[in-house]
Amino acid sequence: MTGAPELARFLARRGIRDQRVLRAIGSVPRELFVPEELRGHAYADQALPIGHEQTISQPYMVAAMLEALGLDGGRALDVGTGSGYQAAVLAELADEVVTIERVPELAERARETLARAGYGTVDVRVGDGTLGVPDRAPYDGIVVAAAAPAVPEPLYEQLAEGGRLVVPVGTVRDQWLEVVERGLEGPEGS
Predict the structure, then answer these.
(1) How confident is the model over 15-58, as pLDDT tens digits?
(2) CB–CB of 93/42 below 8 Å?
(3) Among 131, 171, 177, 179, fewest CB within 10 Å belongs to which?
(4) What CATH number does residue 50 fall under?
(5) 145: nearest Cα among 34, 26, 62
(6) Is residue 57 flagged as an active site residue?
(7) Which helix (H) or strand (E) holds 4?
(8) Which of 27, 57, 83, 190 is catalytic?
(9) Residue 7 to residues 3, 61, 154: CA-CA distances in angstroms?
(10) 132, 123 in Cβ contact below 8 A?
């Protein structure tokens, strides 16, 4: 694949149905978020190394998680900034995006890349993503890039009423996508 629009069409053929997510992915230049030596693979449907033993997520997983998030405006938290790509796509769907990364060098690089790509309003933070960013809460949507053994309680607590949290849960070998919605009666998982 040679560009973001072609990637979006590919993801639609793979089963992504949310047109807003497809438009968002089709408008973000993924090549800006991968290391220069891997730019020829920027639109391949695969995770790519970005340094510090981290990767930019596979485009299908970004699309599937954002489709599950179902966000239409509002404030979003992206946990595990990495290269900043998912935060950029999220910025096409949300009114405000906060993203948190535990590796300071990746956070700084993501901040620079997001600004260069036209997403300078994304608030990039450094810290433990499982704790979220409480000073910007509540969030209408929270998406987590890395698997956790269970849904992190601090993230659930930072959801707005009716907000949704999407997180891969499990071990390195056995993971599933958990979608939790904050309701009046407590967490509602699916």
Answers:
(1) 999 999 999 999 999 999 999 999 999 999 999 999 999 999 99
(2) no
(3) 171
(4) 3.40.50.150
(5) 62
(6) yes
(7) helix 4-13
(8) 57
(9) 6, 13, 34
(10) no
pLDDT digits (tens, 9 = 90+) for 121-149: 999 999 999 999 999 999 999 999 999 99
Q: What SS3 class is residue 156?
A: helix
Name the residue type at position 142: I
Residue-by-residue DSSP string for 42-93? TTSSS-EEEETTEEEPPHHHHHHHHHHHT--SSEEEEE--TTSHHHHHHHTT
Nearest to 78 by CA among 170, 176, 167: 167
Using DSSP's 3-state secondary structure scheme, residue 118 falls into: coil
Which domain does 75 fall in, by range? 4-189
**Which residues, in sequence order, are bridge partners of residue 125?**
100
Domain count, the chain: 1
| CA gap 50, 86 in Å, rounded | 14
